[in-house]
Amino acid sequence: MQYLLLFATAEDGDPYVAEEDDIVQWVQHTRSIGADLGGERLRPPEDATTVTRRGGRTIVTDGPFTESKEWIAGYGILEAADLDAAIELASRHPMARYGQVEIRPVWSLNLDLGDAS
Q1: Domain 2-105 coded CATH 3.40.50.720
Q2: Would you write out the chain's pLDDT as a tens digit for each of its 117 residues?
Q3: Strands 72-79 and 2-9
Q4: What pTM value is reported for the model?
């Protein structure tokens, strides 16, 4: 099953320590077991753009939609046997120590889009 990991900042997290919080080791481990399906860091909230449609109008707003001190710093997609396995992998990510990791099962749309050509 696929899981989306949302890596977020947290005010109550432990301080970031470069020697302890090496993302490269986590990525190497998840890749070595075939669990890493991709992921990236995200630009800060100031670089966000929010798009909504209301009453037939498109509304574009600079910045994030939510107002909070925490912000999504990145994401990852894992393949794991079940939620327990995803939790184990997420708990090893450095952001689990100095931020927080939200895990969401991917819910496939199963759309038949036909021939894309």
Answers
A1: no
A2: 999 999 998 888 898 888 888 899 999 999 999 999 999 999 988 888 888 899 999 989 887 656 667 788 899 999 999 999 999 999 999 999 989 999 999 998 877 777 665
A3: antiparallel
A4: 0.81
